[in-house]
Automatic annotation (TrEMBL):
Keywords: DNA-binding, Transcription, Transcription regulation. PANTHER family: HTH-TYPE TRANSCRIPTIONAL REGULATOR BETI, HTH-TYPE TRANSCRIPTIONAL REGULATOR RUTR. SUPFAM superfamilies: Homeodomain-like. It comes from the Bacteria. This is TetR/AcrR family transcriptional regulator. One of its GO terms (molecular function) is DNA-binding transcription factor activity. Residues 21-68 form the HTH tetR-type domain.
Amino acid sequence: MAGVRSRTAHTDRAAGTREAIMAAAERLYAEHGLTAVSNRQISEAAGQGNVAAVGYHFGTRADLVRAIMRKHSAAIDAIRQRMLDEARGSREVRDWVACLVRPAPEYLATLGVPSWHARFAVQVMTDPVLRAIVTDEALTREPLWEILQGLGGCLGSLSAETRAQRGDMARQLITHTCAERERALADGTGTRQPSWEGTADALTDAITGLLLAPVTPRRSTPEENRT
C-alpha cells in the first residue's frame, strides 16, 4: 500500500508540475513571443528549482506548444461538436461559419481576466514550423474536418484556390481579433465589442461576407502576355 501511495503521490506531483509549466509558458509566450522566452525563464516562472524541468517533462519547445494547444482544444472541440450537431445538413454558409468562429470566443469567455490563450495562439500561428504542426493536428479532429466539409459544400461556386485564400484570411481574422480583445481586457483599455459573444457575432458577419464576396476576374500579368 505504501508503494502505491508513493507512486500516486509522484504521479500527482508530476501532473502538477506539468500544469505549472504549461501555464507559465503560455503566459510568457503570449507576452514576449516564442523566441524571446527560454526554458530557464519558464522553469523559474513555474516555481521549479530545476532549470531543466521543461525539457524533462515535455522535450522540445514544439512538444510543449503542442501540449498547451491540446489542453485547450478538448474544451473548444466540445463546443464545436455541439454547434456541428445543430448545423448538420444546413445549406447556409453562415451556419457553417458560426461553427468555425464561435467555439473559440465562447471558450475564451470561460477563462476569466486576464487570460493568455488567444495571444499565445497568435504567436504560434506566426511561426511557420509550429503553425504547420498545430494546423495539421487540428485537421485530424473530426468536428473541424466535418465543418470544413460542410462549408466547402456551400461554396461550390468558388475555385479551390479562392477558397484556400479566403480560408487563410478568415483564420487570421479570427486569431488576431480574439487576441486583440484578450489583450484589451487584460490591459483594462476597453474593447470595441461589449462581450465575447458580440465578438463572435461580428466575426461571423465579417467572415460570411468575406466568403460570399464576388471574385475579381484574374488579369494576366505583362510577363504572361509575352509568353
